[in-house]
Amino acid sequence: MLVLGLYICATIALVALMIGLSSVLGGVRDGRSMRLPFESGVLPVTGARLRLPVQYYVIAMFFVIFDMEAVFIFAWALVVRQAGWAGYGCMMVFLAVLLVAFAYLWRVGALEWGPRPYRAGMQRRERTDTGRIDMGRS
Length: 138
Hints:
This protein is mainly alpha-helical.
């Protein structure tokens, strides 16, 4: 316990030292060049903001989630003999839940990149002159 407390104190002291030294030694210069993004010695010609579609971030979140699933399966594979049938049952339940989640994402179209096709039978939403949405069937 003493070693853990010493480690925590040393970490806090090191972080405080780094923040303090950067505020003392790091000069802040005003001017146009300090406010612009700088890459490889070349000043930018266009804006630095790049708009990506929402699907890009959704796919990135799914990748992280399903990548964590691979970590759990790999850890289980290392101790499969020691875990026995109870560990096997737990892993099968885990995989079943994962499969249901994947099927749900597929069903709601969260994994589709392109524009959604028009499905027959869907209600068409049209704006009226008053600004209200008319749910007319066409």
